[in-house]
Write a structure and sequence with these properties.
Layout lengths: L21 H13 L4 E8 L2 E7 L9 E2 L4 H14 L23 H5 L2 H5 L10 H6 L5 H7 L14 H15 L3 H13 L5 E2 L13 E3 L1 H12 L3 E2 L2 E2 L3 H7 L23 E2 L5 E5 L3 E6 L4 E7 L4 H12 L13 H13 L14 H5 L3 E4 L8 E6 L3 E8 L2 E9 L3 E5 L7 E11 L2 E8 L5 E9 L2 E8 L11 E4 L1
Helix pairs in contact: 1-11, 1-12, 2-7
Length: 482
Amino acid sequence: MGTISTNLQLPRSRPEDQGISSEAISNFLNSLPNNKLDLHSFMLVRHGHVVAEGWWSPYGSDLPHMLFSLSKSFTSTAMGLAVSENLLSLDDLVISFFPEDVPDVISEHLAKMSVRHLLMMGTGHITDTMDAIIEREDGNWIKAFLSVPVEKNPGTHFLYNTGATYMLSAILQKITGITLLDYLEPRLFTPLGIKDPAWETCPRGINTGGFGLSVRTEDIAKFGQLYLQKGIWDNQRILTEDWINEATSKQISNGDGGESEWSQGYGYQFWNCRHGAYRGDGAFGQFCMVLPEQDVVIAITSGTNDMQGVMNAVWEHLLPAMKEGSIVVEDATEAAANLAIQLNSLAMDPPQLQPSSSMEDVLNGKVYSLDENEQKLVSISISFTSSEAKFIIHNLHGEQVIHSGRGVWVESHAKILDNTQNHIMSSFTWKAEDTFQLTLLFIETPYCITINLKVDGNNIQLTYDFNVSFGQSESKPIMGKA
């Protein structure tokens, strides 16, 4: 098995030297658009060497990416570290950490719930606790979790339960006095050379645990490589081998197998996969796939609803091409060079329909007040130059300015998705003579928003849709008047 000699960056190698053909990787990349799989980044590590890496511009290697539930595997790792430091036991009862937050009547099932049950998604709940948690008006997510009825005996029933992972973070903060992020900094992030990780917090300052971590693609690959190397990094033990074996093994059944990657068994915040593999994953295609039999780690960030499709492409194109030792391929040097060109030219092309419209004179600089709407958007205006459109929108966070390129991406920072400065690349085109189309790539997240503005003199109709969403992806029309 390959091992890493530096804690700053993974070593690089030609694919053929690590037993996989460049052609197979190229075929994998070519299959993605055919199946409408929108990847943002891809990194393939074999025998401890990066043999292929690419970012679909304007996504880039230096940008962190929102991991969603891939965060859970990092939370699990913190619990493994805490166990090795004798800070807690997996058999410790959840209610023992929060006597001040337990309900007046503690049910038999709640009384039995342990740290292990949180890790294995076997809490006994029959509905995810996150709805109750988020709706809690006083921001006490712990009390909200403990108040949800526990219908089944803990350990007997699998339910994917993001609130359970939050509780792991809360327990760690309770016993250490520091956040999950601060606990992992010297123990995991610094040794692996993972710089500037960020993690969202609940209203009471506890890291969300089950989501909210943002790191770079190579950081995901390093994390997977640590697990592949059974906890050793740069000749130092970071995590115990026993923990890794336990966390990545089937701890609870979540289905009857078959071809679904969500029914192969579940460990401690890791999914079991077909082909002897395991993974951490997050919504919309954030992956850390570990293939022990092939000595491979695959890190992927995406904005897709077809996560099974991404993994199917790995099984179809990459898995069969992994050979023992280096391989001799005729014209291997040329194939590797062609693959490098392909990887370096990956891009999310901005829509280019109709480059301009006579309606630009009608819209230019005019402020349109918007009818009352669920999104609390107040007004918009657009000003045009030969190369850009300046899109100004008033929302809950005040005036937001987005610079948009005419058929090219232009960078902006604005509060659109939430009350933080979103890093945005934006481009515009005309969908029709009377319909302005604006595309916003939130390049540190999976999200892309497409805004369509239909113009009729002093009246406009605004609609928008998300590429991926947990709920409704398309908005209702919002009317506006100058």
